């Protein structure tokens, strides 16, 4: 397959929704989107952190209905396209249609790396609506390369126009990213993408490894505003790519300015690698489980790392957030017996 130009998707308004406990306001979404559009960003993803329909007690209630946020983002875009994320089982067809009606041009249909079969209807529905439909294989560190290839091929067969290797736990090492992207590139006729989390401080390095192997759909989050330690820091990646002679047509100075002046003030605390986010990458746990685990640890008087290590051993997958409290309660019981 001939290599397409690299397209960047900015995810701070979707993956970053986890970091702000889904409390984005319309004004914040408008300000960030306007500045990203002005800088020339290709795609801007806007949804609840867990995708369309994620605003629930299980995943965290949004302050503002995501459809209002999507509508506001579309209204601010002159060139950038608004994307949405949908996890089948959380988001519905009707929410997908609504997002499309409001002007979303692309949907990433996300499944666990062994469950691509649940994406068939949503991918084909999106294509029928005339949207770009891409597959997003989450927790890609947790399955062997041939399994990932098999699942990506399923998504391709449903009509996906690209499939992402999604390092949800920020647990992949650069050579593991290379082998996954290379295998997908060698087996698919569609584009391959990469989505990183920075829990082991490898997001930029892993993204470069993915690009080196031919990934052309690349995710970033301004100021790392994403779950856990965040995603590949977009403005840093753009500077590095520029130094490597890769021009993607996005204005670096404008990105630096919006990172400092518009996104920075939205971040509660600091987006750095602390023991909690490091434990996510080390244990191989879904990045969006961090805040839930920290809350459970506070409630049961535990160290969040113990909860995360246990969740890693159990190989929990997205959607099993309710397990966090169960694990915490069980650990607290054991602790009491020991005392
Ligand atoms: C819970 C959905 C998740 O945040 C999607 C994603 O960005 C990932 O798996 O990394
Ligand atoms: Mn993510």
UniProtKB/TrEMBL annotation:
Mn(2+) binds at residues 15, 195, 197. The active site is at residue 18. Its EC number is 4.1.3.39. SUPFAM superfamilies: Aldolase, post-HMGL domain-like. GO terms for biological process: L-leucine biosynthetic process. It catalyses: (S)-4-hydroxy-2-oxohexanoate = propanal + pyruvate; (S)-4-hydroxy-2-oxopentanoate = acetaldehyde + pyruvate. Residues 6-256 form the Pyruvate carboxyltransferase domain. GO terms for molecular function: 2-isopropylmalate synthase activity; 4-hydroxy-2-oxovalerate aldolase activity; manganese ion binding. The record marks 14 as: Transition state stabilizer. The keyword Cytoplasm does not apply. It is an enzyme of class 4 (lyase). Pfam families: DmpG_comm, HMGL-like. Coiled coil: none annotated. Belongs to the 4-hydroxy-2-oxovalerate aldolase family. NCBIfam families: 4OH_2_O_val_ald (TIGR03217), PRK08195.1 (NF006049). This is 4-hydroxy-2-oxovalerate aldolase. It comes from Sporosarcina newyorkensis 2681.
